[in-house]
């Protein structure tokens, strides 16, 4: 072996290190390293990680056969020369059922049966026909990670075989998305692969009941189901720490899950009894996320001594009061259609470390909305706000008494880290309304990120507002200055989404040509 001046091996004499470098690079850049030397060329031609991630749907018709030939040639070379394949990442579509589907089945079978394979990730676009995964997809004894993703289709499916050869006793991670798999097969997998640590089942079909049982190493379980009346049963999973469950709705039967610290529930019927069940089943809970679409009560009261992070998402107009007794709580996120009253009586006097508010507004808001938001901002050191305004149904203008609001709010919150502002289907109502007069009365954000209207891409309403109120209008008279928020704005800087200066400043963003505009505001 050649050695450097110090007697240590040269970089090019360690193929494993060259492989690591190449695997960290994008495929095209990694391929370019092959021209550096014979050592780099040999490393590239024997790299144990193969990544074929270019979507054939993005290729021109005449390019697709050549792309498939490259994959086929590469795999044949590896198999013929007994070059180990430890990781395979494959993306393919079934547009040409007879050709591409047969090739995909051959490729998966030839690689999955090899003892050297550790990770297999497959993305199959079921565009023109359903595709059945080969029986041998779980036959590799040393396979530790399997990820299978199908594209969403109401007509075609990505089918897991009904008679799989399951020898993957070393499997640690199983991720399935848009896969049609029978109840029997999924239970066979859980019965055989006892070392599973991470299981994710997203939008899978073919079964009514999921039984997670006797998986002593399972740490992360995520299930997202859009099928109705599904049942989830969980027992004997002593090390489960992360549990994420979204149903439509999903009935959940659980044994004791005392080690779960991170919990997410969505589209599950929730009431006071459900909250009591959570406190009983999850005594060590630190992070809780609830998707509140099915919450039908005006108040949400929750007590948890160990809770540190809480997110309430998808809240309806009905929820108007939130009270959380959690002495260790330091982060709170709320997303909904209105601003509720917030109370955290058990939190120390220093308050929360972070509060994030996301408003999806399609109805008029009044003075109480802004006062509740102002009070919420007082509860935390770090504050972020997101506002999405929808004007699909035309609503009357806001009617807010700015003078009265200013007296009641007393002074604006100054340490609002950022505001994200978006509109959907608004042809100009929001930019001409007193909404921002009221909003800037209760808080002075340091940064505002705005996007063009989602339906009318040529509109960026906040940019138009800034031009009209700050650049074109001049305040006259003390009363007008007192009422007008631009009076309190010392200056601002506008940049692109990557925070690069725009060539024509603010006016560049008016027509929506910039995807995001970032305003950095300097207040008096």
Automatic annotation (TrEMBL):
Q: Where does the At1g61320/AtMIF1 LRR domain lie?
A: 80-292
Q: Which residues form a coiled coil?
A: none
In terms of InterPro entries, this protein maps to:
At1g61320/At1g61330-like, F-box-like_dom_sf, LRR_At1g61320_AtMIF1, LRR_dom_sf
Q: Which domain of life is it from?
A: Eukaryota
Q: What PANTHER family does the record tag this protein with? A: F-BOX DOMAIN-CONTAINING PROTEIN, OS02G0105600 PROTEIN
Return the protein name.
At1g61320/AtMIF1 LRR domain-containing protein
């Amino acid at each position: 072996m050649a050695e450097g001046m110090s007697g240590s091996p040269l970089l090019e004499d360690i193929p494993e290190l060259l492989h690591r470098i190449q695997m960290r690079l994008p495929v095209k850049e990694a391929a370019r390293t092959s021209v550096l030397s014979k050592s780099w060329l040999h490393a590239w031609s024997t790299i144990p990680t193969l990544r074929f991630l270019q979507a054939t749907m993005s290729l021109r018709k005449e390019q697709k056969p050549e792309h498939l030939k490259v994959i086929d040639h590469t795999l044949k070379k590896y198999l013929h020369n007994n070059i180990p394949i430890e990781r395979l990442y494959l993306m393919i579509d079934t547009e040409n059922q007879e050709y591409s589907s047969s090739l995909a089945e051959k490729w998966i079978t030839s690689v999955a049966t090899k003892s050297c394979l550790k990770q297999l990730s497959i993305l199959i676009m079921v565009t023109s026909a359903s595709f059945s995964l080969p029986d041998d997809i779980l036959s590799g004894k040393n396979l530790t990670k399997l990820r299978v993703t199908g594209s969403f289709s109401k007509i075609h499916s990505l089918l897991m075989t009904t008679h799989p050869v399951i020898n993957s006793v070393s499997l640690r991670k199983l991720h399935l998305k848009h896969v049609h798999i029978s109840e029997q097969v999924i239970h066979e997998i859980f019965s055989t692969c006892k070392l599973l640590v991470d299981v994710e089942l997203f939008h899978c079909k073919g079964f009514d009941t999921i039984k997670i049982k006797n998986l002593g190493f399972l740490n992360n379980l995520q299930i997202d189901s859009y099928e109705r009346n599904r049942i989830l049963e969980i027992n004997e999973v002593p090390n489960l720490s992360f549990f994420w469950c979204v149903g439509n709705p999903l009935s959940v039967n659980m044994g004791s899950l005392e080690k779960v610290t991170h919990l997410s529930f969505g589209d599950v019927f929730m009431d006071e009894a459900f909250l009591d069940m959570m406190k009983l089943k999850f005594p060590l809970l630190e992070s809780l996320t609830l998707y509140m679409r099915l919450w039908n009560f005006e108040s949400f009261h929750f007590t948890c001594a160990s809770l540190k992070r809480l997110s309430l998402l998808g809240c309806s107009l009905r929820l108007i009061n939130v009270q959380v007794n959690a002495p260790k709580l330091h982060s709170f996120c709320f997303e909904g259609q209105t601003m509720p009253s917030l109370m955290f009586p058990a939190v120390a006097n220093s308050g929360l470390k972070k509060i994030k508010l996301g408003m999806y507004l399609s109805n008029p808001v009044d003075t109480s909305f802004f006062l509740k938001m102002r009070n919420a901002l007082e509860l935390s050191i770090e504050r972020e706000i997101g506002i999405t305004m929808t004007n699909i149904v035309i609503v009357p203008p806001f009617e807010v008494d700015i003078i009265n609001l200013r007296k009641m709010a007393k002074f604006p919150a100054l340490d609002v880290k950022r505001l994200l502002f978006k509109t959907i289907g608004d042809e100009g109502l929001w930019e001409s309304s007193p909404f921002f007069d009221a909003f800037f009365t209760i808080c002075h954000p340091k940064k505002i990120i705005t996007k063009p209207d989602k339906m009318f891409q040529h509109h960026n309403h906040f940019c138009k507002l800034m031009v009209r109120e700050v650049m074109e209008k001049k305040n006259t008279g003390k009363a007008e200055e007192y009422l007008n928020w631009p009076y309190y704005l010392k200056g601002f800087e506008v940049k692109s989404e990557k925070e690069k200066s725009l060539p024509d400043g603010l006016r560049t963003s008016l027509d929506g040509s910039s995807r995001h505009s970032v305003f950095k505001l300097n207040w008096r």
